[in-house]
C-alpha cells in the first residue's frame, strides 16, 4: 500500500512530539555528558589572559613576569562564581591552590598594584613556585584527555607520555569488573528463579494468573530504601534468618549474611525479579498452545517439549529480561551501598561522589562515558547470543 | 463534557498556583536523635514563638552538595544548613553562603570566639567524634584509640565514616602519634601514607557508614564492635534506648559546627531570625538535655546542670587528650584525601 504524502505528514506530526521529547531528555543529556568528559573550561573562562600567556610559555623556561600581570588583570574582572569554579578545579590536582587563588582574588592590593609580581609574591611566596603556574597551565583546556584517562586508570605525565596510575589510586578498572560481576550474578539468580515462575504463571488460567502477577509486582510498589532496610533487618546478626538458624541448631553462631556481597545479591534479586518474570511471561503467553499438545501427541516427553519447542520460541522474552535486569542492576548503587556496608561499592557511587561530593563533574562524565561504551559492547554481545532465530521452514514432507 | 473541561482546567491552574507559592523555611541538619533534639530545642519553639513554619530535613555533609545547589542558580531549595567547619570555610571562600548580618544576632557577645570568627556562619554546637563501643558486648573495655586497631584483643568489625576526616587522625593516634603532633605529621606525605597503612591493617574488618545514626545502629545490632561515633548520639542512645554504650574521650576529635544560610535563599530574613533564636542562651541550654553537645553561648553553658555538663565535649576532663580539628588542613586537602580514601575503601 503506497503511503500518500498526506499520510506521511500526518505520521510525522504524530510522532514529532515523542521524537522531540526523546531528543531533549535522552540524546541531549548523553551529548552533554560526552562533552563534559572532555571539556575543561573552568580555568579558561575565569583567567583568559593568564591561560593565553601560559599556553605560549615553554615550561622549561622560568615563569615570565607577564604572567603575573595577566593574572592580576584577570582577578580584577573575574566574577566571584567563575573564580570559585576555577579555584575548585585547580584544587583537585594541587591541594591548597583553592585558598591561594581565592585569597589573591579577594586581595584588592594585588588587583590595583603597579607591580603585580611584587604584590603577588608579597601576598604569598608560593606564587614564585613554577609548580603553581604549571598547574594552571595544565588546566588551560579547552579540551582535555585527563578525565577519560583517569576513568581508564591512566595518567599523563608532564612530558606527555601516558602511563598507568599507581596501584593505590587505580581503582576504576576493578570497579567496572565488580559492577558487572554483581549485575551478572543478580541476572543469573533472577533467571534461575524467574524462568520457572514465568512458566508456572503462563500455565495458569487468566484470573489466577492476574492474582499471582499482582503478588509478583508487589515489590515494585514499595520504596527502594524501605526494601534495603527491611533486608538488613532480616539478614542481620540477630535478624529473622539467623535467629531461625541458631534456634534450630543448624549453625552454632550467626552467619554474616548482610554487609557483604551475599546481602547485596539477595536484595537486588528481590528488587529486579519482576523485570525478569514479566517479559518472559509475556512471550510465553504468545506461544500457541496447540503446538505443545501436538508435540506431546507425537511422542515428545514434557522435557523435550519444554526444551525444544516451548523455550526456544521465547528467546525474545528471555533476552529482554536479561537485558533489563543487567542494565538496571549495573546502574544500582544506593541499595548496594546500604546493604553492602560501604565496602563493595558499584560504579554509581563513584559517579555520585565525583559529581557532587568532590566537585569533579569532568571525572563523573568520564566514568559515565566509559561505562556507556563497555555496556554497549556487553549489550550487543547478549543480544547476539540470545537473538531470536527464525525457524527454518521444514522440508517438504 | 464542558463541565469536565472546566473542572480539569481549574485543577490545572490550582496546581500552577500552588507551585508558585513561597516555600517554608527549610532547615537542614544531620538527622537521627540529634535532629530530634534540635526539633525540641529550636524548631518547635521557634514556630511557637514566631509562627514561622519550619520544615526540617537531613543531610550527610559534603560541601559539594551545597555547591551543586547554589551553583545551579535560582532557589537552592535549602535555607539554613548545619555545616561542619571545613564546609563553612570552603563554602565561604567560594561564595556559597549569605554573609551573616551580625547586628541581627542579639546575643552575639555571649557566643564563644570560635562561633563568631567567620563572616558566613554562626557557631551552633561543639561536638566530638571518637571511638564508641557497647559495654554490654565487649567484656574487656577498650581505653584508647589504639584499641580500635587491635583486632586480636577486641575482635569484631569496626565502622568508620566514609571519608578521610577523623579517620586519618584516628589512624595516626592509633599508630602512636601524640595528639598535639597529629596534624604536623598529617601535613607530610609520609604521614598520610602512615595513616593509610594503619587503616589498611584493619581493612578486612572495616565497614563504612554515611550518616551518624548508622554508626549507632551498627553498634546496637552488633554488626560492629567498635565504631567512630559522635558523642551526643552515644549518650542519647544510652538515655532514650537504655543502652550501655561508652565513648572514649582521650584521642577524640572536637570541632564547632555552624549554621549557614545558602546564597539566593528566598527566606533569608526568616533564616537569620531562626539563627538568632537558636543562638539564645534560653534555647541553647535545652539541647544538651537531649543530646550531649556543647552550646556556643557561654550563658547557656553556665546554666547547665552538673550531671549534663559532665557529658559535654567542652567539660574540662573530656578535653584532656582530645584533638581540636584543624579546619585549614581540611580546607586545603579534603578533595585530594577524599579521592585517596575512596581508592582505599574501594579495594
Question: In brief, what are we looking at here?
Answer:
The complex is a heterodimer of chains A (397) and B (347). By secondary structure, chain A is an all-alpha fold. Helices cover 70% and strands 2% of the residues of chain A.
Provide a descriptive summary of the structure in words.
The complex is a heterodimer of chains A (397) and B (347). Chain A has 397 residues and is mostly helical. Helix content of chain A is 70%, strand content 2%. Chain A has 21 helices and 2 strands. Chain A has a two-stranded antiparallel ribbon with strand order 1-2. Chain A is elongated. The mean pLDDT of chain A is 87. With 347 residues, chain B is α/β, with parallel strands linked by helices. Chain B is built from 16 helices and 11 strands. In chain B, strands 1, 2, 3, 4, 5, 6, 7, 8, 9, 10 and 11 form an 11-stranded mixed sheet that branches. In chain B, helix 4 packs across helix 16 and helix 5 crosses helix 7. The longest helix of chain B is centred in the last third of the chain and has 20 residues. The radius of gyration of chain B is 22 Å and the shape is globular. The relative contact order of chain B is 0.18. The model of chain B has no long low-confidence stretch (mean pLDDT 89). Classes of the chains: A mainly alpha (397), B alpha/beta (347). Chains A and B meet through helix 5, helix 6 and helix 20 of A and helix 3, strand 6 and helix 16 of B.
Topology overview:
The complex is a heterodimer of chains A (397) and B (347).
Chain A: H1 5-38, H2 42-46, H3 48-56, H4 65-77, H5 80-93, H6 97-106, H7 108-111, H8 116-123, H9 130-138, H10 146-151, E1 154-156, E2 162-164, H11 172-203, H12 206-217, H13 224-235, H14 240-247, H15 261-285, H16 289-297, H17 302-310, H18 315-331, H19 334-339, H20 347-357, H21 361-386
Antiparallel strand pairs in A: 1-2
Chain B: H1 2-20, E1 25-29, H2 32-50, E2 54-58, H3 63-71, E3 80-83, H4 85-93, E4 121-134, E5 158-161, H5 167-174, H6 182-186, H7 189-200, E6 206-209, H8 212-221, E7 226-230, H9 231-240, E8 245-247, E9 253-261, H10 268-278, H11 281-284, H12 287-290, E10 294-295, H13 298-302, H14 306-309, H15 316-319, E11 323-324, H16 327-346
Helix pairs in contact in B: 4-16, 5-7
